[in-house]
Amino acid sequence: MIGRQWREAWRFLAFTMVVGFQAVAALVAMIGCVAMVVTLPLLPHVVRFARRLAAGERDRVGRFLATTIPPPPEGTSAGVAEVATNPHDRRDAQWLAFQGTVGLVAGSVAIASPAGLVQNLFIAAFWPFIPDAATTVDTPVESWAGAGVAVLIGVVYGLLGVFFVRPLARWWARTSAARLAPPKRTLTERLAEVTATRAAALEAHGAELRRIERNLHDGTQNRLVAVVMHLGMVERALTRNPAAALPMVATAQKAATDALAELREVVRAIYPPVLVDRGLTGAVASLVGHCAIPCTLDEHPIPRLPAAVEAAAYFVVAEGLTNAVKHSGADRITVGLRTENGALVVEITDNGHGGADQAHGSGLLGIRGRVAAFDGTTTIDSPPGGPTVLRVDIPAGP
Amino acid sequence: MRIVIAEDDALLREGLTHLLRAEGMEVTSAVDNPDDLLSALAADRPDVAVVDVRMPPTYRDEGLRAAVQARRQWPGLAVLVLSAHVEESYATDLLADGAGGVGYLLKERVGKVADFLDALERVAAGGTAMDPEVVGQLLVRRRADDPLQRLTPREREVLGLMAEGHSNATIGGLLVISDGAVHKHIGNIFTKLGLPTTDAGHRRVLAVLAYLKA
């Protein structure tokens, strides 16, 4: 008996055809936009329509299968450049093509089954009044025997509907769910990426520890040994020849002062004290204030973040500003600091001549490495003629 | 000179007290947190407060905040802030009220006792004592078309010492040049930088620091 589940499957499949037509329209519009150069600016609108269509379908298919289909990561705008490089839009386009062909055919079964049943029964009943009457599979209906064949064909249409609509709807739902969800492969890729950045982070951390150890061991410690040694000499001299003690005291003092200066440098390189005192915003404001090119801070309220993240962001701003001052030829810099979807976003914009070369700029490489260690991303947009925008996203949330 | 000390490290607090008393100063109180500092200032009304930047409870910039608050509460109170590291923006905070009697030095400057006592006396008398490192931070971050480029190396030295808060006589003594020569250098500096000539003292320091920060 035709039950509620069948009706749901039928409705699902029938609507698949509607979405199929929309997919064809979107695909044709997309190809049209790209093919005719003048219409390229319209592409973002089409892409947004396609994204909405895919989102709606994720919802509909998810409801039918009683699961949730994860959407692709949000964030990129629908600008032409972003669309061209966004793998999720490419995947959406593939889905559109699939939906507009196979989806259209699968959906048409839902329409054809009741339509074929009704049409063939109608012809079987009224053939004497219809000139050149024929069944939907093109057998002529010119006698009651022919009408019997038409009834049979109609029944086959009906049975096809009864037996095929439900499995077909389920097959279609599962197939499109797989195409709408972010590809499984990316999880493997993600793991490879995380493993690689983790190894790089460990390597960088190790190098950092060795550098700190060397600075403290070869510099500060030796200076302090000199202090103790000279104080020992002073102690001896005071009993024998107090006048000789004075230059030794001066040497000890100089050595101790040098040790302190070196310690300050080491501390600053590990974790700048101003971060502890003033938080990230205050510390960056101080960097911005120090910048040799007029620089403004575009700040938004940000919560206290993990210390390592704050330190990384601080060094990114420091290195980014140094780079801009050295290479950009800019006379204005803006530093943006905000959080977006739980990630800390640092954006350094300068109005210089652009063309920043990330392959050669060691500063940019340093920033990239530092950010990658936190599983963050670094993007630089620096067309010839400028402006240059360096953007860094560091995940900071749980 | 009556002095209140606020420093949370016991060894440094004792040492500083000992050093100042040995030099004939009167240390009325030596405390280890910002709250006790404010009560000691209210009770003792000293000539100078010597304050560490990092203190309990959070070990951030409590000392600096307490110093700024104390100067608001008792206008004219001279404060000498000591820190293990100097940060130019902290100097800005201290100088923000425009009044004199401000010092901001690295802790280790205490070791050069004569220089330290000179700075302390300058601050107590309403003058300024900026750490050479603060002034150094201000002098390095300059743009290409900076008028500072037009200064001779000697004039840069004189400018740095002015920013640290030294008087003409001290500058002459430190650079081993005559008072007249110092005066001439200062005149040249103010002309080259386009600053209105200001009388010696705190206002001159403020003008120079304001110029360097702009």
From TrEMBL, chain A:
Keywords: ATP-binding, Kinase, Membrane, Nucleotide-binding, Phosphoprotein, Transferase, Transmembrane, Transmembrane helix, Two-component regulatory system. InterPro entries: HATPase_C_sf, HATPase_dom, Put_sensor_dom, Sensor_HK_TwoCompSys, Sig_transdc_His_kin_sub3_dim/P. Residues 308-398 form the Histidine kinase/HSP90-like ATPase domain. It holds the Pfam family HisKA_3. GO terms for molecular function: ATP binding; phosphorelay sensor kinase activity; protein dimerization activity. It catalyses: ATP + protein L-histidine = ADP + protein N-phospho-L-histidine. GO terms for cellular component: membrane. The chain crosses the membrane at residues 12-43, 96-123, 143-165. This is histidine kinase.
From TrEMBL, chain B:
The keyword Transcription regulation applies. The modification 4-aspartylphosphate is found at D52. PANTHER family: TRANSCRIPTIONAL REGULATORY PROTEIN NARL-RELATED, TWO-COMPONENT RESPONSE REGULATOR. The lineage of its organism: Bacteria, Bacillati, Actinomycetota, Actinomycetes, Pseudonocardiales. GO terms for molecular function: DNA binding. Residues 144-214 form the HTH luxR-type domain. One of its GO terms (biological process) is phosphorelay signal transduction system. Residues 2-122 form the Response regulatory domain. This is Response regulator transcription factor. Keywords: DNA-binding, Phosphoprotein, Transcription, Transcription regulation.
